[in-house]
Amino acid sequence: MSEFDLIKRYFTRPAPSAMLGVGDDAALLQVSDGKVLAVSTDMLVCDTHFFADADPFLLGHKTLAVNLSDMAAMGAVPRWATLALSLPDADEAWLEKFSAGFFAMADMHGVELVGGDTTRGPLNLSVTIMGEVEASLALRRNGAKVGDEIWVSGRLGDAALALAHLKGLIVLAGDEFSACASALHRPVPRVALGRALLGIATSAIDISDGLLADLGHILAASNVGAELDFGSLPVSVVMQNHFDGMIARQCLLAGGDDYELCFTAPVSRHTEVLTIGMKLTCIGRIVAGQGCIVRDEAGNNIVLESAGYDHFG
Q1: Considering its fold, how many domains does the chain have in total?
Q2: Do 9 and 113 share a domain, yes or no?
Q3: Is residue 126, in this structure, part of any structural domain at all?
Q4: Displacement of CA 135 from its chain's centroid (Å)
Q5: Among 72, 102, 134, where does a domain finish?
Q6: Is residue 222 domain-resident?
């Protein structure tokens, strides 16, 4: 199967909202009146972000989901995506499942694939996603203010806990691993939450490299500090069952792969945040200064070996 046959068979679909989609040297896109384009690129590399034997349908899901999470963090409506694939070979069974997982996620969020590239090489998946957001309302990292509350969506740490199990760093029972594996393989991008936070949140980021690392980006951009209450962090029963070990705490605070949103909002908007309609938890507050302090239930500072994932750290 040639490169062009591969693209035509597995990755060419109509893109009604694009002036020109797959099949030319570039796509032509028209942004809606009053909106600006939000653009983000994420790359998933075999043996760094996923194992070589990963289920291709779930991998297709995750490949787009992690990019949708960036749109969520900006409060943007996802519209279009391009997909670049480096493939060891043209495995038709693998491509069939991968593209099905990718397009299932695309259909769920109204995203049209408008271009990309394929080449032979080590398995590497790269998506550039484009969305629209009102220029004056776009969520950014630099708006946190002293006194703001710090919030997170969903539960934290389960994906990292599942990965730690796969790497042999911790042992989860069969039912425990199954409960955590979904968070690792099928992240849920919080696109609707991002839209709901427009005009409410003062800053936002998606949690991909770990809570402390990603919150740290907000703190640096906003020139503020933070205090977190460890006991307030939203966790699963599995995570609670393993709190006696340092690995679980590391997964919770610095493990990454959560793809939940971390955001700040004024105390005056507390009730409004709670009425958004999903699990949102206030975990701390923005303070003057720099850096982040995490305190346990006794008020003692928690110190970790690492604040989050760094490809070159």
Answers
A1: 2
A2: yes
A3: yes
A4: 22
A5: 134
A6: yes
What's the domain range around 31?
3-134
Please name which of 154, 155, 151, 156 lies closest in space to residue 266, comparing C-alpha atoms.
Answer: 151
Q: Does the residue 90 lie in any domain?
A: yes
Residue 23: CATH number of its domain = 3.30.1330.10
- Output the domain CATH number for residue 276: 3.90.650.10
Both tokens of residue 214? 């990603």
Instruction: Indicate whether 76 and 167 sit together in one domain.
Output: no
Per-residue pLDDT tens digits for 202-235: 999 999 999 999 999 999 999 999 999 999 999 9
- For 105-132, how does the pLDDT look when each residue is reduced to its tens digit (9 = 90+)? 999 999 999 998 999 999 999 999 999 9
Quote the pTM value.
Answer: 0.91
pLDDT bucket at 24, cuts 50 / 70 / 90: low
Res 201 pLDDT > 80: yes
Concatenating the DSSP letter of every residue in the chain gives --HHHHHHHHH----TTSSB-BTBSS-B--PPTTEEEEEEEEEEEBTTTB-TT--HHHHHHHHHHHHHHHHHHHT-EEEEEEEEEEESS--HHHHHHHHHHHHHHHHHHT-EEEEEEEEESS-EEEEEEEEEEETTT---SS---TT-EEEEES--SHHHHHHHHHTTSS---HHHHHHHHHHHHS----HHHHHHTTTT-SEEEE-SS-HHHHHHHHHHHHT-EEEEEGGGS---HHHHHTTTSHHHHHHHHH------EEEEE-GGGHHHHHTSSS-EEEEEEEESSSEEEEE-TTSPBP--S-SS--TT-
Asked, for residue 183, whether it belongs to a domain, the answer is yes
> Are residues 78 and 197 located together in one domain of the fold?
no
